[in-house]
């Protein structure tokens, strides 16, 4: 099934569980450290310039943004984490919001964690990844900013990401560049599968449970 990417609209910013859509449509959730390029990845995926805002107030950590794609699928943009200037109180609010999202297993169809292809994943990345892996839902890692790597760095960096996050072999790491477009087709295919087939099995291999 092919998604009409021109049919994408911002739905709402959710600050509490009552605001989470629960209408049974598939939900693909994106998480990542602040500044990792999450907005840029979403924009690249949809071939838009300013759909999800780039460089939007770092540390605005208390809202989950929902976008509706082709009336078939939600793109769920979790607030970025790891921004140094965020207060303890706001970090706690972030934690409660994310916990409440993960607490309802009916919400997530596919999890997408974005990390920086250049760096070893941070402690916060590992925590986030654990949430995804513990959910038992299909999950992939996007290693963004690939264009910033030398060719010789790609394989070792991807291996380091896999090892640091403790990824099972079945979990895909997608080398991605929001700037150049690498990885877009792979991620888009996963979105389309999520839209067409409802919940995917663990490992995002497209088999239904
Ligand atoms: P967010 O805070 O995770 O939403 O990150 P943004 O999308 O705002 O991007 C943060 C910065 O990284 C911006 O300056 C982007 O232009 C830059 N950026 C994002 N993705 C890429 C990428 O794939 N390659 C390069 N070179 N820069 C990127």
Describe the structure.
The structure is a single chain. It is built from 5 helices and 7 strands, in the order ββαββαβαβαβα. The protein has 209 residues and is of the alpha/beta class. Strands 1-3-4-2-5-6-7 form a 7-stranded mixed sheet, with helices on both faces. Strand 6 (139-144), helix 4 (151-165) and strand 7 (173-175) form a beta-alpha-beta unit. It is globular. The model is unreliable at 201-209 (pLDDT under 50). The structure holds guanosine-5'-diphosphate (GDP). Guanosine-5'-diphosphate binds at residues 32, 34-40, 54-55, 80, 144-145, 147-148, 177-179. Guanosine-5'-diphosphate binds next to helix 1.
Keywords:
7 strands; 209 residues; alpha/beta; binds guanosine-5'-diphosphate; 19% strand; globular
Briefly say what this structure is.
Helices cover 32% and strands 19% of the residues.
Structural class: alpha/beta
Can you write the helix and strand succession as a string?
Answer: EEHEEHEHEHEH
Supply Rg.
16 Å
User: How large a portion of the residues is in β-strands, by DSSP E?
Assistant: 15-25%
Mean of all residue-level pLDDT scores: 89
């Amino acid at each position: 099934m092919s998604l009409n990417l021109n049919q994408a609209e911002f739905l709402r910013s959710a600050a509490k569980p009552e605001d989470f859509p629960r209408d049974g449509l598939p939900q693909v959730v994106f998480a990542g450290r602040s500044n990792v390029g999450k907005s840029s990845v979403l924009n690249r995926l949809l071939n838009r310039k300013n759909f999800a805002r780039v460089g939007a107030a770092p540390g605005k950590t208390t809202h989950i943004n929902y976008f509706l794609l082709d009336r078939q699928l939600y793109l769920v943009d979790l607030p970025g984490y790891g921004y140094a200037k965020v207060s303890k109180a706001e970090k706690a609010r972030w934690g409660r919001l994310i916990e409440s999202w993960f607490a309802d297993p009916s919400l997530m169809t596919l999890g997408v964690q974005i990390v920086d292809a250049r760096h070893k994943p941070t402690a916060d990345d590992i925590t986030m990844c654990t949430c995804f892996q513990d959910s038992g839902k299909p999950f992939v890692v996007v290693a963004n900013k690939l264009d910033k790597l030398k060719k010789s760095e790609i394989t070792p960096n991807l291996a380091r990401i896999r090892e640091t996050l403790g990824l099972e072999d079945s979990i895909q790491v997608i080398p991605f560049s929001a700037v150049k477009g690498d990885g877009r087709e792979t991620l888009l295919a996963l979105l389309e599968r999520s839209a067409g087939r409802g919940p995917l099995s663990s490992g995002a291999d497209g088999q239904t449970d």
